[in-house]
From TrEMBL:
Its main location: membrane. InterPro entries: LeuE-type. This is LysE family translocator. It is a multi-pass membrane protein. Keywords: Amino-acid transport, Cell membrane, Membrane, Transmembrane, Transmembrane helix, Transport. It comes from Providencia zhijiangensis. The chain crosses the membrane at residues 6-26, 47-71, 77-94, 115-136, 142-164, 184-202. The keyword tRNA processing does not apply. It is found in: Cell membrane. The lineage of its organism: Bacteria, Pseudomonadati, Pseudomonadota, Gammaproteobacteria, Enterobacterales. It holds the Pfam family LysE. Signal peptide: none annotated.
Amino acid sequence: MDLQTLLLFSATVIPLICTPGPDILFISSQGLSGGISAAWKANLGIILGYVTHAILAALGLAAIVATSPIIFQTIKWVGVAYVAYLAVRMLLSAMKSRKFQINVVSTQAVIGKAFLTSFLNPKGLLVYFAILPNFIHVSESVAIQSLILSATFITSCIIIYGAIGMIFASMHNRQQYSDKKRRITEGVAGGMLTFAAIGLASS
């Protein structure tokens, strides 16, 4: 695969990656409420979701989803429900006043939520089945080209999402811990996830 094709593919998917959606808003909310560690854990979970999409695409299993409106819509609305659930939980927590304490959320919990947010996001399937095929040359190995393009997409996600997570984490680090600050940050984070759910539902 030539460099020109890779550059053109990158130029195509990077704007899509940068478009605010469930992935970016989840990472942002984690960075804002939990700092840089939570942001990178969320980033890892998001990336694992896209790696799973890449594996399914390579195996051809996701083709069934791409050609079945019913399965695709099912995944979409499960994703909407899950992101909405996360938003409601955070908003309810923000509305409750309680004695302030720093809660350490387990790594598995953050990564697990991020993975589901990414895996249930149809954007990944759209990249693999609507955009990626346009950059594959039938005269070369389709599997190898698919893996190279998938790696390019995932690497771009790591860099962009990592930068966004660190920006929001820096806002968290400048805050003085208090119950009022917790409620504000959780309220903002919950609002961000609410917009993510609405955007996913209307896409």
